[in-house]
């Protein structure tokens, strides 16, 4: 029976040599051509910047910023940054006009992410007024500090508190400065922990922290437990001893939910092998980042082993038919190999990422994968693919877009 979610991986595995045809001389022109294609697809009228960084024009601005940071694209740097500024200014105006202040505080779908990327682009252009979008970002902590600021679920990555913390982490990394005060970070971490504790207690869970989003108890990176815990680990210096214990107990609980190298999309579900989700948003390719963070902090070998098993599943089932993007597409799969390369230094993972990059441009992929609605977008479309191609050329610095593990 043909797998409806992925193509068969017919590549032979690593034999000790990388693919010479996947070097800068090949990938730079492909990336530049893809960027040109993306820029032709962006709506000319930027009055509607809905979709935030996830699938709105703002995500394209981040991609251009990311490419401009890579020395291999230095001749395009100025053009890309100016274009990025034009797009992000329109997106910021759109976010400023958002009547729902809760949406303004959303990382991937609203204002917080847009302001963060605007600050990064302004700083790269050497503009002193990068502090303007930065102060807009900072002011949003008050919005997401109350324990139940969103009815649908206040803690997840796209619109909730974990996303706000994630954006602050990326900003700290890119701008090299503290973004939020210790008290602000503590209050947000405490709200996440208290919210998860109350939910777990109310629902009589056998572990200390759990969350739901629109009534579903997700486990994956997109809306689920793994990215919430990942952000708490990223700020674990701000937690009390008792709070740390709750977080690590929950990390270990989630590790035990593994089913054959994968995780169900929601708590308690049984994975059907022929229909399983192997995506960054739901499944091992996103959950792996939590265990990578756990490994970097604790050096516990069990966490690295879990990441490695996730990588094996992605090698088998990660040639996804859902397009070239990072959320539930090919680039999202391939980023797991770049993560594993950074954790282990094993060149096998660069080779595997190269093979996935090669497959992206085959006839089999182009004819057999789903057509996209937002072909230019960062998470579903080609902007995420470009970020991956750029990171394939600098694997020592590679990182899943806007989802820092190494900070």
Automatic annotation (TrEMBL):
Q: Which organism is it from?
A: Mola mola
Do you know which InterPro entries this protein is assigned to?
A: 6hp_glycosidase-like_sf, LANC-like, LanC-like_prot_euk
Q: Does the keyword Metal-binding apply?
A: yes
Give GO BP annotations, semicolon-separated: carbohydrate metabolic process; peptide modification
This entry's Gene Ontology molecular function terms read: metal ion binding
Q: Name one GO cellular component term.
A: plasma membrane
Q: Which SUPFAM superfamilies match?
A: LanC-like (SSF158745)
Write the protein's name: LanC-like protein 3
Residues reported to bind Zn(2+): 281, 327-328
Q: Which family does it belong to?
A: Belongs to the LanC-like protein family.
Q: Which UniProt keywords apply?
A: Metal-binding, Zinc
Superkingdom assignment: Eukaryota
């Amino acid at each position: 029976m043909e797998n409806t979610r992925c193509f068969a991986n017919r590549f032979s595995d690593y034999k000790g040599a990388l693919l010479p045809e996947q070097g800068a001389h090949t990938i730079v022109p492909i990336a530049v051509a893809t960027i040109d294609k993306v820029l032709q697809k962006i709506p000319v009228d930027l009055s509607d910047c809905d979709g935030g960084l996830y699938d709105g024009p703002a995500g394209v601005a981040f991609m251009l910023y990311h490419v401009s940071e890579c020395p291999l694209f230095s001749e395009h740097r100025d053009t890309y940054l100016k274009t990025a500024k034009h797009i992000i200014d329109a997106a910021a105006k759109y976010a400023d006009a958002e009547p729902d202040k809760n949406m303004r505080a959303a990382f991937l779908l609203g204002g917080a992410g847009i302001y963060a990327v605007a600050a990064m682009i302004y700083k790269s252009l050497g503009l002193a007024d990068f502090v303007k979008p930065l102060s807009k970002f900072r002011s949003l902590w008050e919005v997401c500090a109350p324990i139940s600021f969103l009815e649908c679920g206040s803690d997840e990555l796209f619109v909730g508190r974990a996303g706000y913390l994630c954006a602050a982490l990326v900003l700290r990394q890119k701008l090299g400065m503290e973004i939020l005060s210790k008290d602000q970070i503590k209050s947000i971490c405490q709200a996440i922990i208290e919210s998860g504790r109350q939910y777990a207690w109310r629902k009589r869970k056998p572990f200390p922290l759990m969350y739901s989003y629109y009534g579903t108890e997700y486990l994956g990176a997109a809306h689920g437990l793994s990215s919430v815990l990942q952000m708490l680990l990223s700020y674990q210096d701000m937690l009390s001893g008792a709070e740390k214990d709750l977080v690590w107990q929950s990390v270990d609980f989630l590790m035990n939910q593994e089913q054959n190298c994968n995780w169900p999309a929601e708590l308690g579900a049984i994975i059907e092998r022929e229909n399983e989700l192997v995506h960054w948003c739901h499944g091992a390719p996103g959950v792996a980042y939590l265990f990578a963070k756990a490994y970097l902090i604790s050096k516990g070998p069990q966490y690295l082993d879990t990441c490695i098993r996730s990588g094996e599943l992605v090698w088998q089932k990660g040639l996804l038919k859902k397009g070239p993007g990072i959320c539930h597409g090919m680039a999202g799969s391939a980023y797991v190999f770049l993560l594993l390369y950074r954790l282990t230094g094993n060149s096998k993972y660069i080779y595997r990422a190269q093979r996935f990059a090669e497959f992206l441009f085959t006839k089999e992929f182009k004819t057999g994968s789903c057509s996209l609605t937002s072909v230019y977008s960062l998470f579903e479309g080609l902007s995420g693919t470009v970020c991956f191609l750029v990171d394939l050329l600098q694997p020592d610095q590679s990182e899943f877009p806007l989802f820092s593990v190494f900070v």
